[in-house]
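G., the chain you wanted modeled:
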Amino acid sequence: MARTTMNVSMVLSILALVTVYAVYLAGSDIPRLASPQGCRMSWMSPSYLLQSGFNTSWTPLANRYTLWLYREVGWEPNQPVGVPALFIPGSAGSSHQVRSIASSAARQYFSSPFVISNEFNGRRIKPVDFYAVDFNEDFSAFHGPTLDSQIAYTTAAIRYVLSRYPPDTQIIVMGHSMGGVVGTALLPSPNISTLITMSTPHTLPPVRFDSRIEEIYARNGRILLEDETPILSLCGGATDTLVSSESCVIPESDQSSSGLYRRTVFTSALQGTWTGVGHREMVWCHQVRWRVARAALELGGAVSAHDAAAAARDKILDRWLRDGLPVSDEESVELRNGTYETLPEGMQLVLKNPRGKRTYLLPVVPGAIEGPSTFVLYVSGGAVSGIAPHHAPDLRVSVQLCVSSAGTEGASPSLPTTCTRLPPTMLKLLPSPLPGRPFPVPNEGSDESEGIVLFEGEIPSDTQGWIGVSINAGEKEGGGWVVCGFDRREIVKRDAVSLSDLILGTAYIPLTTAVEGLRTRVYIPRLPLNVLLVYRLLPHFTDSSSCADAIFPPLLMHVSHPSEVHYYPLRQDKPALLHSHTTAPYVPSLEFNSRHHGLNLTIYSYGYGCTDPVELVLTLDWWGTLGRLGTRYPTTLLSFCIGIVSVVLFQAWRPGAQPQSVSESLETFVRRVVPQFMAAAALIALLPLSYEWYLGLNGELGLLACFLAVFLVGLASGLVCLSWWVLRLLIWLLGFVGMRVALSRRPEDSGLRRSTVFSMVFVSLFIFLFVPWQVAFLGCWIIQLLNCAAHPQDGRDKSRTPIVVDASTEAIPLRSQREDEGSKQFTQDGVAEVLSTVNTSRGTHPYTLRQNEHILLFLTWLLPLTAPVLAVWVRTLMTAGYTTPFNGNHNVLKVLPVLWLVDYVGRGHVLDTRHWGRICPSWGFVAVGLVSFLIGGRWVYLVYDVANAQVAFLLFWDMASWYL
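Predicted structure as tokens:
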């Protein structure tokens, strides 16, 4: 039986190792398959001027951090001459990351060295002076006090920078990654005009091991909801594997009523960019950086204004960093004979290389379909109401709703007709992928001159008149084209398709096709838009359909949220991987409008002989889903592992349990408890818990959530088993060293020795004054590992001499008897077997080694909770010097119980885990397990606090047992 059990734990360990590797590979494939990156490399001639005047008279942190001014060599003078902007790098980031944006701003403002560009000459816009703070690449994402230091230093840096400019000057703040968190924490401030964040996790800390970080995030959350400073967040999407982009989204609740400017723009939706962008690439991707730089230049003209400054900044940000912008009012157009042309009813307007000025009237057919019809317009190489590629030709197109001046149904179109602007329901720039080339093009992406303007406007069903399309083009051939017409096809809605259908099989969605159609809409309301899900969509075309020479080949637009849009060129037998960041674990849902629930797809196209797909084949992409899971649940998996170890210790130390080795405890757990755990985990996954609890899914994914819970429990169990095999290997390797340590120490009695008290006081003072308590925890883990290595591995068998006594008549032994004479185990016949350990030398007690090994396993899984701060401490010593004081984490109580425990069991003592009435110290491990499973995924730092309290409770119980 034991042999079979051992095989089960070994197999589970191997499966866990293979699964972790597979998850890693799947996560690495996400940027390549689901959200490929197309970014052009940026080039510059950088120089950095140290601001030596910003010294300790401004802040004591000037000894640790520095402030720099960027200058583009050969293009701008060394002294500041324009509007100040401050760049804040993220965790492990560098001040040199400012160079891409700053260089672009300089080269846009100056057409040649020191010569102002025609776009800015005469507009009273100054260049931007880019400053950057340097935090020595500190790991601010791991450590709240480090984040506090950066906030304090940046606050002082802004005061210093503004002291070099005229009064009332405001500064533009840009933050990358955690630098955006620092920038948000600077608010409210009258000195900051605008905050632009890039790949910043606004709503969920990427590392959730520090309670101080949670406090900073809570305060920033209130700032995002209340402060009047315009804030815009750029998110890289699935390509960003370091920061989950769902946490990059700024909450948008109550913005319309409060008047606050809060925008979130995914780079896949940013016009002219249309690509996912990696975390580090966000600061140098040319398609992004030139727009951020241009926005900063334009914002410079509004920095010193007071009355309409906020409105001007909003418009600037919407123009340069958003998918589309508000349409300005256009004057009414009066048509006269010879200035317009009327098309036959039902005919589409197709113009290639238009020239001159002319208006085309398309008759509206009332009652053609139920409800309002939609007018669709495509313009390539031109502009519609201000929406155009950056370097567009002179082609300008406007859309009006025209009615007869007589206002009668039978009025002749030859009479003067008044036209008013038709308000768009959608106005944006669409990408125009080239046939046969990947989209986006690797290492190149889209050009500023590319794109097709899309205009959609609804026409009420009772409207009588015409849609006027006014063309204003130059006389030179510009290569543009115009296509427009009425879309009368109903939306393809599939209410029967659900997530369960895709889990168990494939969904086939037939489409209504039309030659020379303009768009096809598909809506599947029951498919959730969760970050964990990746849908695989495969289009099927007719054999006769050829889109190689089409004016506008089929383009799929997937809108999951107003700020997140993805585009996919539809090609024969080439799948598109659909994904979203609308809902995600531990993040508030973005589905504030029911229209955004479900899968919303639109296919845009036009071309002779080119039809839309006749069918869409939809499946769940399991490989992509596995990769998304791996990037969202590492913290949850760690918390589950701690919970499983806690349950193992509870099983091993529960009242009446026979002493077991860790291997035996894990084997028993795998065979008997894991199936029960999996069943319970699956049931809990179905409950509509808060997004902050358990898996953070709020019961949304149904059956898939059950599979996920079972998967995580199984994987966590396998990793715990695997960790014990690694520890056994370390113990075997350290056995020789451990024996030498053991022989150098004599066994001690149970009382508190003076040397022990002195050691505890010394270590506590050292922690309080110099090092974080995490260093002491690491030392405790090493000592406990050596303690286990010091025990003779065969001592547990050779030292045991069973003595059978009557359990019903045996008196409760005194503490000295329990330690020196042996321990008892109950047999199936009700007879106790006393394991005699007459030799009291270290390691010969049958329960000592087993208990030490269980404690080692417990401390091993608590160690990752302390590792981030250890990394911050080492980094601080390396960059700031050995004499630099370390901020925070000097609370001795965080580690004192562990110090005491390791010292106590290291002297050969056994913790007393006997129960008193219904109270048993092992029940504390149940509390640790509950916290780990239910809330550890979101607030993992609480898991350590509860585990530390359980260690203290064990020691208190052991001390109290002397007198009970």
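Residues 848-880 form the longest helix (33 residues).

Shout if anything looks off.
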